[in-house]
């Protein structure tokens, strides 16, 4: 189910608006109650503590999103390498299995690229996944038939790469589904609103205009984190160049 954080641009606009409202309310509340020196000192301590916790959570969440992005990018390379290795080792198979396996692998690469190109089209995603499963079944059937007739180290090596190729499909799907939990997003928003309110509530009138940058900075970090965490709707997408290059090589 799509949420606000699946749309980085909307995240930026929505969170900025929410934090600016918190700044406004904090300023109104702060002007209505004058502070003494002791109270202002205590408020400064509270502001520092809240901002420190928020900075820690923002950094942790950004690190989580970046790690998930790197994992998705690595799996694309791993899958391309696995398919390429399987295609090369298919030369060791007897006819007609050799040509059948190579044709299946060429079609499989096309299907994997179609799966990514489907974007947010649920029907296109489902069709690509169903076709991938059919090709995996055909590939394994051909491999099993060869293994029944020819039991040796060469066939075992080929079966190993076929297994890896099939397993990487599940790994990529799991990586796409591995997102920052909604509870973490909720905590970030609550702390961001609280931080903006408290900073403005206890701030000096002479520097309040400077604090307008705080909600913009927080919203920018949250939007970037959401972008990295959104594999199909974000602006920062995992490059499929390795798979595209493989597709070209297999067609030669």
Please give a structural write-up.
The chain has 252 residues and is mainly alpha-helical. The protein has one domain (4-250). Helices cover 79% and strands 0% of the residues. The chain contains 8 helices and no strands. It has helices spanning 8-31, 37-89, 97-117, 122-149, 153-177, 182-201, 213-229, 241-250. α2 (37-89) packs antiparallel against α6 (182-201) and α3 (97-117) runs antiparallel to α4 (122-149). The longest helix has 53 residues, at 37-89. The protein is elongated. The model has no long low-confidence stretch (mean pLDDT 87).
Keywords:
single chain, 252 residues, mainly alpha, elongated
The total count of strands amounts to 0
**Shape call:** elongated
Order of helices and strands: HHHHHHHH
Q: Helix amount, in percent?
A: over 70%
**Percentage of residues in strands:** under 5%
Write down the overall mean pLDDT: 87
User: Whole-Å distance between the termini?
Assistant: 41 Å
Number of helices in the DSSP assignment: 8
How large, in whole angstroms, is the Cα Rg?
Answer: 26 Å
Spans of at least 5 consecutive residues with low confidence: none
Structural class per helix/strand content? mainly alpha
Tell me about the largest β-sheet: none
Number of domains: 1
